[in-house]
Amino acid sequence: MKSLKLIPLVLVVMATALFAQTDSTSKQAGPKQQAKLSVKKGQTFYYSVGSVVEVDSEQIQMETTTTTTFSAKVLEVTKDGGANFLVTCHTIKGALESPLMGEFEFDSSSDEEDENPMSAMLTKGLMALAGKTATVTVDSLGRATKTVKAEEASNTPAGGLMGLTGTSASFDSIFTPVLKAMPKGGVSVGASWKSDSKAGGNEGTPVEFSQKGKVTLASATLKDLVYKATAKPEMSGEVSDEEAGVEAGVEVQGGKVSITSTIDRKTGLQKALKQTIDMDMFIDSPMGEMEMTFITKNEMKQVKSLNLPKKSGTTDGGTTDGGTTDGGKKPATDQPKKKKL
After folding, report:
1. DSSP class per residue in 63-132
2. Lowest-pLDDT choice from 130-139, 309-318, 327-336
3. What residues have CB less than 8 Å from 263, skipping those under 6 apart?
């Protein structure tokens, strides 16, 4: 079972990388475009994130589907045009399918106890972020610049991030990571800039993860701005978990990251995100060598309400300020359909 614990350790490292600032690489043509944050204190926004993660190797085949819901409440609007948000992860539900472990479902809003020790351990980790909060500082362009966790969620079982790479890596993932490098003054349609980034591993996990690619403003309307990003992931180093007794060398031998981000001009916030990560990885551990294909597809949508279970006791399941109700309908992003391995 130690081989299973290697996967979430790898995902933890991969989840830290975002697009970092470099210079614009293309000539400007036409009017420059740039969204501006426009929110009010007390306003609350709601998000639903669907994720499908596939892991395929000779030793392990696994697929995890999840749907995670978030709310982001404006605590204050800052003098520089930014804002501080209280971000809450409300619910996490989904399913895991593997020839080795079988198939089981999980739902953070359910009171039912899992009698299977293995699935109980994994689902506890998968749902560890449910109910956790963080304060996220967003600048005048709608970009998350600082995240402070109000409730620590890092000390979770090794499976804590398995299958949740694009949704639970950090609470600022619902904002605009693709615009971290936005050139000052904005860009015109068709313009692009480098998106090279590099992230070091945590203490005890000296893995370096980097992405080399570009971001392009694909289209601009009076309502939305749409950005597309592509990058080549690179990773090498060692991952370890002393408590779980897991240690391995990891190297990415090829792959691609692609993102489409839609920004709402009215609020300056990201309202939709589609992300695909497809990587070939090599893992060398005391249990042997492993070649693995890792594919994750994430889709985030801003929704009108979350329709939260009554047991949650929260009042943040309504509509955004100035918005309209959706009659208690389910969020726009439903749980992704599972595929057979």
Report:
1. EEEEEEEEEEEEEEE-TTS-EEEEEEEEEEEEEEEETTTEEEEEETT--PPP--HHHHHHHHHHTTTTT-
2. 327-336
3. 35, 142, 176, 179, 224, 225, 226, 227, 269, 270, 271
For residue 59, give every residue at least 6 positions away whose Cβ sits within 8 Å of its Cβ, in sequence order, or none. Answer: 3, 288, 290
Residue 315's pLDDT is 44
At 53-72, the pLDDT tens digits run: 888 888 778 888 989 999 99
Q: How many CB atoms lie within 10 A of CB 52?
A: 22
β-pairing, 192-194 vs 207-220, is antiparallel
Residue 138, token pair as written in the block: 């967003």
* Torsion of Cα atoms, 268 then 34 then 133 then 207, to 10°: 160
- Going from N- to C-terminal start, the domains of the chain cover 2-312
Single-letter amino acid, residue 159: G
Confidence band, pLDDT 50/70/90 cuts, at residue 10: low
Question: Is 2-312 a CATH 3.30.1360 domain?
Answer: no
* 125 vs 8: CA distance, rounded Å: 10
Q: What CA–CA distance (Å, rounded) separates 94 from 63?
A: 11
